[in-house]
Structures are given as C-alpha cells and as structure tokens.
Specification:
globular, 275 residues, Pnp Oxidase, Chain A, seven-stranded antiparallel beta sheet, single chain, 33% helix, alpha+beta
Length: 275
C-alpha cells in the first residue's frame, strides 16, 4: 500500500512539473495574456540586426544564427507567386500547392482538449520587406489598396520581381487570426511555449524550413518602430488581397535557421540540408 501511495505521489508530481515547465494554467493559454495583449517571453530578438536570435526551446535558452533562403528557394517561391497572380488575372483559382500555404509543425503545449503537444496546421505565408524598405512598401500598399484588382495584381507582381532587393530573405511571415485570451489555437500555444516551427511547402520542388517563430501583438506597447511596421505590413498585405478587416491581427515572424530540399526522387532532395 505504501509503495502504491509513493507511486501515485510521483505521478502527480511529474504531471505538475510537466505543466509548470510549460507554464500552463487552464490549458487554453490564458497565462500568456495580460488583458487583451500578449508578450512572447521565450524569444529574444534584440540581436536580429546581427543575424542572431535567442529562444527558449524545450526549457533551455539557445542562440541561433539566422540564414538566408537559398537561390533555388527564391526562384521557386517568387516565381510561383508571380505565376499565381497571372492565373488570378485569367480567372483561375489559386492552387493549394505552392509557396503561399505553409504546413507548420509545432510542439510544446498540451491544450485542454488534447492528449498531445504536437500540432500541424496550414498557414498563409508571405515575405517581409527589408527593414530599410518596409516603410516604403507600406506607403505603396496604403495608397493603392482601393485600386481595382488588376492594378493591384500588377503592383504585387512588380514587388515580387524585385526579389532580395526588397524582401528580407531570412524570414517568412503570417498572421495569428483566431487566438483569444480565453482560447488559443494549438499553433499559437505551442509557439508561445516553445517557439520552434518547421514549415513544409507542398509542391515540387519541396522545401522545408526550420525556424524560430516570433509573435508580435499590435497592442504590445513595447514593440519597436520596426516591429510595429512588421505588424502593419503583414495585416496590410492580407487586406490588400482579401479585403479590409475590422481588426489588426498579431503577426508571426518565422526566422529561418535551416533550409532543406525535401523533393522526392532527386539526388539533391530527400531531406538534404542546403542552408
């Protein structure tokens, strides 16, 4: 009987430690919020301008070097985006495959309705302008957002044609559309608790990005001018194509650390690391 009691005590202690390690309270992420905003405390982005980012992964602070997306990725991604714009102009529906729909794998937080901490979700992805270009691109989008769609397609295509002259090739960006203080999406909860994300793009060629995800809430008063511009740009780009929304959504910045070619049946692919 004594052994059973000790075993039960150890199991309870282990469960408590597991929840404490993740910082969990109710299993929906309320602990990440203060009123209507959140601050991601497990990422230190203060040295991004030096190509470095610190993150608390699996309970340990680690330093990561950010890398540029390789030329073969840029050729595929930017080329496919331009092709998609042309297809839309011709009245064709966008393909589900390609560089817009990133399949994002995360882990780290056991939500109240699940037995697992692992998650996978499809997220709309895009590029972020370089810090020295972001204000200029924001102004362009703001002054043309009410133009007819054919004119906006031309503007987007021209931007993509500029390649790494305009775009920061160390990042991909997305929006957190659905998390609230009382109910976090599994992706959001995992990224707040354990900010590593792996992105796969379903296409041929197939690319995989291992990243550190950095979340920015628009009501966080401690955001830098650049971070505020990031939030503004990602929301503006979303509205530019999908129509205006009555709220500003949190931005998610995926800082690229490793890049793999996961194309099947090729010598260069099959999960080969290229950056």
């Amino acid at each position: 009987m004594k052994r059973i009691a000790i075993a039960l005590f150890l199991l309870i202690l282990l469960a408590a430690c597991t929840n404490q390690e993740a910082g969990q309270q109710n299993g929906w992420g309320e602990e990440f919020w203060q009123d209507s905003t959140f601050v991601q405390t497990r990422v230190d982005a203060s040295n991004l301008d030096k190509g470095l980012i610190r993150a608390n992964i699996s309970g340990k602070w680690q330093l990561y070097e950010i890398t540029n997306l390789p030329e073969e990725f840029l050729e595929w991604s930017l080329g496919k985006r331009q092709q998609t714009l042309e297809n839309i102009r011709k009245g064709k529906l966008p393909s589900l495959a390609g560089p817009h729909n990133g399949i994002v794998a995360t882990y780290g937080y056991q939500r109240a309705d699940s037995q697992f901490k692992l998650n996978n979700a499809v997220k709309g992805m895009g590029y972020l302008p370089k810090p020295e270009k972001i204000a200029e691109v924001i102004e362009l989008l703001e002054t043309t957002i009410d133009d007819e769609m054919p004119a906006k397609l031309d503007i987007l295509k021209e931007l993509y044609q500029q390649g790494d002259e305009t775009w920061d090739t160390t990042k991909q960006v997305s929006l957190e559309l659905y998390s609230t203080p009382t109910r976090g999406t599994q992706t959001f909860l995992n990224q707040m608790a354990n900010p590593v994300s792996v992105i796969v793009f379903m296409d041929i060629p197939t690319f995989k990005l291992k990243t550190i995800s950095y979340l920015l809430h628009p009501e966080n008063s401690n955001l830098t001018e650049y971070e505020n511009n990031v939030v503004k740009f990602v929301n503006l780009m979303h509205s530019y194509f999908h129509g205006k929304f009555d709220k500003i959504f949190p931005a998610v910045v995926y800082n690229v650390v490793e890049v793999y070619n996961s194309s099947p049946g090729t010598k260069e692919g099959k999960g080969t690391k290229i950056e």
